[in-house]
Amino acid sequence: MPDPRPRYMTPEGHGALVNELGELGRERERVVRGVADAAAEGDRSENAEYIYGKKRLREIDRKLRAVSQALDAAVVVDPREDRGDRVFFGATVVLEDEGGETVTYQLVGEHETDAARGRISYRSPVGSALLKRRLDDEVVVKTPRGERVLTVIEIRYE
């Protein structure tokens, strides 16, 4: 059963999903042609191209359904739209830990995460802990290494 909650995503993330849907559709057409050609060769029970093609079609169809469901539930939110002094989807948040180290995260949709770029899901443990926080709020986050206390030192929408 699909998740009934809306799936927030940035315009960039929405565009990426639309592109992925198009790519999957084109790949599906190529695989269908390959399966039809392989089926025309005769005995399907020992035809590796036919068997692999059918398996690949199932994978593509599963991915098409997942991407379509994500797009159907999508609520596109522009991260540049300022939402005040609280952390909401799309916010870029600068945090400071107990040792004075800072880290910057942007809250994005689940399929848009990119740790190297500091983009985390708003549904992740850190992301969900940050939602609705204000400047100077402390956030306790459970990590594999134990609990961390982080202080919100900057919130921006860009």
Topology record:
Layout: E1 7-9, H1 11-40, H2 48-72, E2 74-76, E3 92-96, E4 102-108, E5 119-121, H3 125-130, E6 138-143, E7 146-156
Helix pairs in contact: 1-2
Structure description:
Helix content is 39%, strand content 24%. It is of the alpha/beta class. It has two domains: 7-76, Transcription elongation factor, GreA/GreB, N-terminal domain (Helix Hairpins, Orthogonal Bundle); 92-156, Chitinase A, domain 3. The strands form two sheets. A five-stranded mixed beta sheet has the order 5-4-3-7-6. A hairpin with a 5-residue loop joins strand 3 and strand 4 (102-108). The mean pLDDT is 92.
Q: In brief, what are we looking at here?
A:
This protein has 3 helices and 7 strands; from the N terminus they run βααββββαββ.
Secondary-structure class: alpha/beta
Q: How much of the residues is beta strand, in percent?
A: 15-25%
Head-to-tail CA distance between termini: 34 Å
User: What is the H/E string?
Assistant: EHHEEEEHEE
Number of helical stretches of at least 4 residues: 3
> Outline, from the CA principal axes?
elongated
Which CATH class of the largest domain is shown?
Mainly Alpha
According to DSSP, the number of beta strands is 7
